Amino acid sequence: MLSKGLHLPPSTKIIKPAKTSGYSPREFYIASVVDNRDDTSNIGQMHAGSARQLVTLNLPGGTAKGLYNFIQHGFRQNEGTMPIDLHITNFQIEESFKGNMHKADLSADLEFYSDGVKLNQYTYNSYVSSGIDASEHIGKLVTQLTEQFMKDMDIWLKDNKPTLTPGISVNVEMLTETDDADLIVYDPTRPLRRSDFMGDPDEMSLAGAITYSGIQIKYNLQTFNRHKMVNISVIPYFHKMNSWWRANNSTELLLAHEQIHFDITAIAACELMKKLKAAHFTPDNFTKELEAIQKQSEKDRSRMQQQYDRETNHSLIKTKQAEWERTIKDQLNTEGYFSAVTQ
Q: Which of 2, 69, 183, 286 has the fewest CB atoms within 10 Å around its CB?
């Protein structure tokens, strides 16, 4: 016989979810359910039955197991889609009374993971009222909640899947300006001027002027879940402080010659753009492949610059100089070169 004043612990009422609509997510399937709550022993307490007896509420086998089994049997899942691990951080039933109405409120915070990476999270709140025992209707709340998060996650994945699958997306752009005051970024509408050559002449050189130009590559890499997003900037430049001019040399002819050197750099930059856009980058080979393409581009550019000086004898062979000027102008105006790339 129980002694006076001794209280029995509340009995447990098992909540069985209601029948589902048979929804089948297209983008994912639930591979596991993990209960991350501090207290995983139940999902709340309520006064149930006509006697209003206090009972503890739970799903069959516990919250994580019960929800997982319900999803497996209540929804058509395609295991050829993305596996998702469902983490429960809150799943709580609270009761309230208003007059003769008995109300059950379900609040849930759910997080969705793939390969250990958190993709998304949702918070849900819903309720059901009854004149007798609201606990009898909680199964409908669980079913409605489950169907809702399955649909919500399906829509979200459809819109965001490109950033969730392993891989890399590369965007390449040509920059037309820079914050570096020592550099002039190539602009076909802005030819070189005598005043741009600000360096000190090399007394050991026989050249009348030197154009120091090159191609900078800058990139930033961001990782969204398991997908890498890379933005590459190509910058053909003229370095004012490293380019020099001898004061006693003719300005017009020599400046035309030096302009072609800069134009050649611009053409090389456009060729580099094409190679970068056509490259087969992967998350593992990106850095190595980028360096290899850049190295080969610089070799090609240097070879063309040397060929230009050799064939024109540094502008002294006027027929060859004129021929190069026509060729370079045609290339700059050809689709796929600088004018086309920067449109």
A: 2
Question: Within 10 Å of residue 42's Cβ, how many Cβ atoms?
Answer: 20
Please name every residue paired with 122 in a beta bridge, in sequence order, or none if there are none.
110
In three state form, how does the secondary structure of 269-325 look? HHHHHHHHHHCCCCCCCHHHHHHHHHHHHHHHHHHHHHHHHHHHCCCCCHHHHHHHH
Contacts within 8 Å (CB) and 24+ apart, 279-287:
279/170, 281/168, 281/170, 281/230, 282/167, 282/168, 283/166, 283/167, 283/168, 283/228, 286/168, 286/170, 286/221, 286/228, 286/230
Burial bucket for residue 35 (CB in 10 Å: 0-12, 13-18, 19+): buried
pLDDT in tens, 4-17: 444 556 799 999 99
The answer on pLDDT for 340 being more than 50 is no
Count of other CB atoms within 10 angstroms of residue 98: 8
Using one digit for the tens of pLDDT, what is the confidence trace for 155-206? 999 988 767 677 898 999 999 899 999 999 999 999 999 999 999 999 999 8
